[in-house]
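Appendix B. One record, verbatim.
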Amino acid sequence: MKNKYPHLNSPIQLGRVIFRNRIFSAPMGATDITADCCPGPRTQGFYELRAKGGAAAVTVSELVVHPETDGSHMLHLNLETVGCLASHTFVADAIRRHGAVPSIELSHSGQYAGTYMSDKNKKASLCQWGPSDGTRPDGRPVKALSKEQIADIVKAYGENAALCKRAGYEMIMVHAGHGWLIHQFLSPYQNHREDEYGGSLENRIRFAREVLTSVRKAVGDGFPIELRLSGSELFEGGYGIEDGCKIAHALEDLVDLIHVSAGSYQFGFFNTTPPMFDPHGVNVWLAAEIKKHVSKPVATIGGLSDPEQCEQIIAEGKADVVYMGRQLLADPYLPQKVMAGQEDRIVRCLRCYTCMAERPVTFTRRCAVNPLIGREIEGTDVTPATRSKKVMVVGAGVAGLKAAITAAQRGHKVILCEKSDRVGGILKSEQAIPFKYEMYMLGVVLERQAHDEGVEIRLNTTVTPEYVEQEQPDALILAVGSTPLVPPIPGIDGENVVVVNNYYLEKEKVGDTVVVLGGGLAGCECAVHLGMEGKQVHLVEMRDTLAPDCNIRNRPILMRKVAEYTTAHTEYKGLKVTADGVLCQDKDGNEVLVPGKTVICALGQRANRADAEALRYSAPFVREVGDCLRPANITKAIYEGYHAALDV
């Protein structure tokens, strides 16, 4: 078999440990941390799946080294808590059994203690510690650590590293980026100390050196230590790439791998976890620059999902290892697919932040395109059915495709009927918006998977009760979707109006001045896209809030883009579409013309309830999934389609 990605698939040795390829799974927080701050069984499954999928290393995150000064509800490791060492051992074992190297991230949040706590009242009662006295952006006071406290924290890093090695972890990642404590000491913006830990860069590096020395003494020679570093803070007043190179050079003698990330919690994680609006690999340049100044291997991270891009990064010497976080949630089997040359079957991360948004809400994980994430313990392999049945799936959008694929994997004979001439449903409309192209490709990849599993796809097929009666399926899964809402206002049927779902078919009709009617998620994203193309865009929303259907991690980023690329009008009700724009009524009852030669109608979706109701009693087993129940999102559609098929 030809190796299409020789650099990406080649092993690498760090210390005395050999890693099977150059794709490492980035640290992402555990899913079910116990009241004693130990990993629960769902956490074990969460990390194990990425090892099973072929990643060379899987990093468990984040282990708090000094709970006395860091109250975040993250993982701890001590011998006083009954079962704590054992629970970590089970996690390390679960990673190792699949050929991956179990790694763990040692962390101290510093002034951001409590960031991940779900109890916000308790969070407010914590004392935040940092290199210097000050005030956090949210107004909470920060107290400077004493030298005695610093020494105790340094000691704790070593003690925890020794326990991690004892538990079976085979690499230690020291987190010195993203605005956490070690980063706070490195940052001239955060560190205003006047003793040997502040002032010059040499002094600001001192704490990091002491921590790494403590860890090295604890784990011994040959045991890989990885330093996670922000190559640049990427804001005025923070350190830039020049100092990032100096920091890496000054610390490389104590580590085996320099993991170059970006940004700081001080101004949000938008640089650290790049949104869909940014190019893939937007932070690779930081790793490439640092690699010029160090002799140790360098890792890069940041919105990486394309094997060809990753292969090129390593081939061109920009980095030696590529880290993937969100992408290995979307498709944990990406490394195996890369090895097998099946890159066209990879399910790409949408960079929608569903995985990150779920955590502060429910303290679990979820992925928009992978229904297993956070629920891996319930089973990661599709169980074959005891008896093969004939299953008909009506509607080939994302819910229908996922249901058909899963039912076929269970051994059922599956017929997937679609009334149009193409599968993909509403995902087809995303192909014209570059930053949403992965959503379009989701439909393409799911279609390929359906063919792989032997699903019979019937296009241009309208399913009626008579059609079902003729086919006599044992089970019927209804994924008949939704229809765009088009209000009966004068002019809405004019030639200058494009329904957002049809934008990909009619984009040539869109002029240089546009009114997007509807400020939900779809309307906002379309408006941003048009603004990025250089068009003058007005966004009109009847409610007082834009994109309330956007998740809490994605929405702040989207609102920044809306402000940058559009003129938004909230509490505006559309009355009439004219050749010159949309006549609206504002909240005071005044009529206002919002100018634009083209109008994009993005007022939401209506469930196709009549289509579903007509087929409700057509088979012994009937299940409705996706938008035909209630228009929502890809996450809901994928989850419902998958589980409906498991129930057949």
